Amino acid sequence: MVMFSVTRKQSAPIDGQKPGTSGLRKKVKVFMQPHYLQNFVQSTFNALTTEKVRGATLVVSGDGRYYSKDAIQIIIKMAAANGVRCIWVGQNGLLSTPAVSAVIRERVGVDGSKASGAFILTASHNPGGPHEDFGIKYNMENGGPAPEGITDKIYNNTKTINEYLIAEDLPDVDITATGVTSFGGPEGQFDVEVFDSASDYVKLMKSIFDFESIRKLLSSPNFSFCYDALHGVGGAYAKPIFAEELGAKESSLLNCTPKEDFGGGHPDPNLTYAKELVARMGLGESDSQGEPPEFGAASDGDADRNMVLGKRFFVTPSDSVAIIAANAVESIPYFSSGLKGVARSMPTSAALDVVAKHLNLKFFEVPTGWKFFGNLMDAGLCSICGEESFGTGSDHIREKDGIWAVLAWLSIIAYKNKENLSGGKLVTVEDIVHNHWATYGRHYYTRYDYENVDAGAAKELMAYLVKLQSSLPEVNKIVKGIRSDVSNIAGADEFEYKDPVDGSISKHQGIRYLFEDGSRLVFRLSGTGSEGATIRLYIEQYEKDSSKTGRESQEALAPLVDVALKLSKMQEFTGRSAPTVIT
């Protein structure tokens, strides 16, 4: 057995190591600075209670982006020096963010141990490569992201750190082959177990969904399928699940080889960046690829986000979570005994609210950040949740889950078509969405992002919108002066959330204008750093009249867009005549 010793390395605080809701994200060259990664890892160990570190089992893996392999070896050496008993690593360092959550919650090691936490190496949907992004975050024993109390401690530790512990003489571990490597240290044996990246997650998915019914759907001559991993870690799960378990042709799997630079692309599953899938599904600028498949989906770099498409048809993330919730009990065995409740992030459209009311379900509107959903799930209050930024999930884990969402949609399509897979007309993705709108109404929805706006101007705009709320009659007068065909504003506030589980209060979460007809305008500010701020404007028009749910979104939203831009004096405050991005 190879022995190792512990070295105390002198260090010093490094500015700007404040983890956000998704951990610490910076350019690779920042992480490669001397002591940068080490400082953050040691600050994390120091923020945890002793029993969560000494003698504990921890997971270290990620989406495989550039610098991951180096970072894994550094964290293994630091874990050994800090008294960790065992490190679990997905083969080749690959585990999707949802799979990490599943491994923490479900996996039992060869020695009977359970993991108490994980370092996840990902910058989510951001590009990878030597000149691109890297990230690290810590997840707790429930499989969910570290709560604010822990991330605040980590940040405070980074501001005072003066040394870190590392086993410099521990040799690098071969993470390409499964198996256990054992070492001896001052506190006894230290193991590194490399395990198959997919098996635990596949097992969990098979316990949730009816794979046999999905297999019948995928083998039907009526149905065709396409999945794009965007060269992210989702590719490590695509072949085992879609091809081996469900019988999909391997030709239906696009970009499913995980790459350190995501093939030079931007691994963000939306209509802008998932270009190959969008073209194949008939939504590109030219329709030269022949007949599109009936169903298409993509996931992001770490496979926690998803996009769902039908033939020449885009499903908005807000509609997606509402449709999954409306159909889950009959379509997905895991939910057959009923839903505990549903939740969405505040900026996400109110499509889920209407389903919850219709089905008499508990409903929660939370700030942006998956940890708020996790609290509700741990308390048994929520089964299905989602956010407008392409994140959907359930209480099977404590992260959003891209492949879970794809399997949920395939389950719904399979259920709707159980009588006509050998012939007859297929109930398509578009049919399912249109039928949903006919039952619940349609929430036309768009998001305008104004990026790198002067931070001072952005704050002035938000302060102006808050001040306007003091007199609703005055606001309605302004609105009617802009567009007389828009409903009156019934209420306006700055969103504040009191967590029903732990009583914590989250303030200043966005400015809302709520209309009498169920429509909404939401303004949020994010990233008031040195490069300026981003103003996000969410515009939502609710339409109950089924004869009007088939309009083009731009046409249906035009009056509210006009009101939003003029009411907020967007151009006056920011100097921008158009947003940077529209989704």
UniProtKB/TrEMBL annotation:
EC number: 5.4.2.2
Transmembrane feature ranges: none
Chain residue ranges for the region called Disordered: 1-21
GO MF, any single term: phosphoglucomutase activity
UniProt xrefs under InterPro entries: A-D-PHexomutase_a/b/a-I (IPR005844), A-D-PHexomutase_a/b/a-I/II/III (IPR016055), A-D-PHexomutase_a/b/a-II (IPR005845), A-D-PHexomutase_a/b/a-III (IPR005846), A-D-PHexomutase_C_sf (IPR036900), A-D-PHexomutase_CS (IPR016066), Alpha-D-phosphohexomutase_SF (IPR005841), PGM (IPR045244)
GO biological process, one term: glucose metabolic process
GO cellular component: cytosol
Function per UniProt: Catalyzes the reversible isomerization of alpha-D-glucose 1-phosphate to alpha-D-glucose 6-phosphate. The mechanism proceeds via the intermediate compound alpha-D-glucose 1,6-bisphosphate. This enzyme participates in both the breakdown and synthesis of glucose.
Protein name in the entry: phosphoglucomutase (alpha-D-glucose-1,6-bisphosphate-dependent)
Annotated organism of origin: Dipteronia dyeriana
Lineage of producing organism: Eukaryota, Viridiplantae, Streptophyta, Embryophyta, Tracheophyta
